[in-house]
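Worked Example 4.2. Read the sequence first, then its structure tokens.
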Amino acid sequence: MRAAVFSDTHHNTAPMLEALRRCRPDLIIHLGDHDRDTLCIEEEFPDIPLYRVCGNCDFAPIAPLADIVPLGPVKALICHGHSYGVDWGLDRLAYAAEERGCALALFGHTHHAEQQQLGGVQLVNPGTAGKGRRLTWALVEVLDNGGIAVSINEMEE
């Protein structure tokens, strides 16, 4: 299972769409800011399942604040991150994921790509796909045995 993960597109959808054309994932996840940017994904890739959440810059959002996404044998908590205080640490997010039986937590908000293990949870921030000096996205691959591989990829502007 290959999931393309984007966050913080801020109306700059062209790099995200180009990454999706090249990658052709099994699943697409958008972590907010701006959740309506996913409408172009639905139009161009109607056969690829899409999960989305809203962020702190989403007014009149079309997506929930958080969701649980099945990635093969692994469950992932997806959120923008602001409601878990990710600016000040990832403990609250890791605990929330663990509490829900998730081995993976995907978040955005900080515009900084990172990945780390905290307890039994792998935390991944794909960075910003639309606003900043370095545009990035994450490819999350989940193996049948539950193994998780993550790569952070740069985008073309």
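Now turn to a second chain, presented in exactly the same format:
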Amino acid sequence: MNLTFFGVDAAWWPFLFILLAGWLPTDIWRYLGVLSAGRISETSRSLGLVRAIATALVAAVIARLVLYPGGTLEQIPTVFRVGGLALGFATFLLARRSIVLGILASQGLLLAGAWQAGLI
């Protein structure tokens, strides 16, 4: 049996596939994190390792989106994508860690890049 997303013709199969391949593997780790959170000291080396790995994964996803995007974002020049990342982070720091202002600043530069590329 071909157990890929399009491998089974049943109407319910895509929903079961999403449940088994997407939701269940990620939620198991979330539940284990909730169960073990009260038992781990915030200053422990193991929690420091977990934080470092989680931060590295988020940074890798952001770097991939900025440097090797897909879809419409790919048509925006690289200088605007990298500049949007830098401007958003600088705005975040200068605006006393305001996430909203950092996002708005980076989105403004991305929109300028989209306009320059003729997308809007």
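Notes for the reader: The CA atoms of residues 20 and 26 lie 10 Å apart. Residues 70-120 form one domain.
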